[in-house]
Amino acid sequence: MRREPIKLGDSVVCWECMVPFQLVSGAHIKGHGMTTQEYKRKWGNPPTVSNNVLEKRGKSISKSKKGTMVGPDNPFYGKTHSVGVRGIISKANKGKVGPWANKRIPESARVKMSINHANVSGRLNPMFGRTTNQAKYHQYKGVSFRSGWEVKVAKYLDEVGVLWKYEEIRFDLLDCTYCPDFYLVEQDIFVEVKGVVTEGFLIRMSKMKELYPKVEVQIWDRKKLQSLGIDTN
Ligand SMILES: [Zn+2]
Fold it and tell me: What's the rounded Cα separation, in Å, for the pair 56 and 1?
């Protein structure tokens, strides 16, 4: 089920599930367990009706809502981060150069990590279970992705105009760390692209919930990717 690339203005994205629609209906929003009002407040009043639908209705959308999603035209312009991630980011920024400096891990954990790097293997190694074969990396926009699915997700997010960061925040889970695949900047949510959910991953997820209850991590599995029209072959 391959779909034509989504053009902004031809569809609107439900920011809860990132699925593009002609119309994000109240019934759909209700399916996420919230009212339309709550949805609009949460996401900074994003458009819920595509230009296509508006044109069919004989209305034309204001010029400022057309086309680009950059700057003040973006419905999330000026939207602040939720407390959960804001705390992490401010910690990450402490005394560092860029806002994405990946340094929120306490000194003790860093020592642990460097020891494990030296030891090469082990469950405490942040690279545990991850491939280190550079040749297996997939390049897109100068970023090295671990899988073809991740590249497809990055392309999809570009198509729907969602600003993303790849593997730029690592969470300290005390005895291990966790670095979600994507951070959707405006939506303030993390996305983990997962073909197979392992036990180790489920443990990390439950630790995430416990230690960072305000941080939202969505798991995009094969079914989810297919529902977004992303080719999983
Ligand atoms: Zn939705």
Answer: 27
Are 189 and 145 within 8 A, CB to CB?
no
Taking a C-beta distance cutoff of 8 angstroms, is the pair 216, 189 a contact? yes
Residue 18 CB partners (closer than 8 Å, separation 6+): 157, 160, 162, 184, 187, 218, 228
Q: Distance of alpha carbon 222 from its chain centroid, rounded?
A: 16
Q: How far is the CA of 98 from the centre of ligand 1 (A)?
A: 33
Contact 8, 14 (CB under 8 A): no
What are the residue boundaries of the structural domains of the chain, listed by start?
Answer: 12-73, 83-227
Task: Tell me how far the alpha carbon of residue 30 lies from the centroid of ligand 1, in angstroms.
Answer: 9
Give this prediction's pTM.
Answer: 0.53
Collapse the DSSP code of 84 into the 3-class scheme (helix H, G, I; strand E, B; otherwise coil) and give the result: helix
Distance 70 CA to ligand 1 centre (A): 22
pLDDT of residue 9: 54
Separation of CA 122 and ligand 1 centre (Å):
39
pLDDT tens across 176-212, in order?
A: 889 999 999 888 899 999 988 888 899 999 999 998 8
Q: Which residues contact 201 (CB under 8 A, 6 or more apart)?
A: 192, 194
Could you tell me the two tokens for 6? 């989504």
**Centre of ligand 1 from the C-alpha of residue 142, in Å:** 30
Please report which residue ranges of the chain form alpha helices under DSSP H.
Answer: 26-30, 36-43, 51-56, 83-93, 107-119, 148-159, 199-211, 222-227
Q: Where do we find the tokens 């080719």? A: 231
Distance 21 CA to ligand 1 centre (A): 9
